[in-house]
Automatic annotation (TrEMBL):
UniProt KW Magnesium keyword: no
Entry EC no(s): 2.7.4.6
Entry annotated with the keyword Transferase: yes
Cofactor(s) listed in the protein's UniProt record: Mg(2+)
Protein name: nucleoside-diphosphate kinase
PANTHER family noted in UniProt: NUCLEOSIDE DIPHOSPHATE KINASE (PTHR11349)
Length: 164
């Protein structure tokens, strides 16, 4: 199995609803390691770059306001950003995160447990999780400087995981 890295964001609704602890607990079931972590006030440029694949969607502007926390205001207008590393990290974390539409997500997944669609149609799905390894690499470069990632394992390098 490949050692992969991926970007996780606890979105502003996750922070506002005090879900950070619950989310990190669920993610920790994967036994992956955190190799980068920080809180970010998301600029419009960063939000646009992160979601560039959705720029033609009708909900794009609303999505930018959501990820920037504009619809919640201070002190919720920020995200927690993490880089995780582990075997098959992307597909395993996507499973724990759940489907994009929180109403269709598995009930035991993070999005299925804590997400909702608002009356204005915003998919409040509490976390972002990279969708494939190449997207993950692009996103990690966008959100983190190399020196913000634990040095000896950036870029991708095999790590030894002790068996319990
Ligand atoms: P993800 O990788 O599962 O987050 O899915 P996407 O990259 O396709 O979408 C990015 C984010 O845009 C999602 O997490 C949702 O917050 C939002 N989104 C995606 N599809 C829709 C939609 O059909 N309607 C609305 N309102 N938001 C959406």
């Amino acid at each position: 199995m490949e050692i992969e890295q991926l970007l996780i964001l606890v979105k502003p609704d996750g922070i506002k609803k005090s879900l950070t602890g619950n989310i990190l607990t669920k993610l920790s079931e994967s036994r992956m390691v955190i190799i980068g972590a920080k809180i970010v006030k998301v600029s419009r440029d960063l939000a646009e770059a992160h979601y560039c694949h959705l720029k033609d969607k009708l909900f794009f502007n609303e999505l930018l306001d959501y990820i920037r926390g504009k619809i919640y205001g201070e002190p919720w207008d920020r995200v927690l950003a993490f880089v995780y590393q582990g075997e098959d990290a992307v597909s395993r974390m996507r499973k724990i995160a759940g489907a994009t539409n929180p109403e269709e997500a598995d009930h035991v997944s993070i999005r299925g447990s804590y997400g909702r669609i608002t009356t204005k149609g915003v998919y409040e799905n509490v976390i972002h999780c990279s969708s494939d390894p190449s997207e993950a690499a692009r996103e990690i470069k966008l959100w983190f400087k190399p020196e913000e990632i634990v040095k000896e394992i950036y870029p991708v390098k095999k790590i030894v995981v002790e068996k319990e």
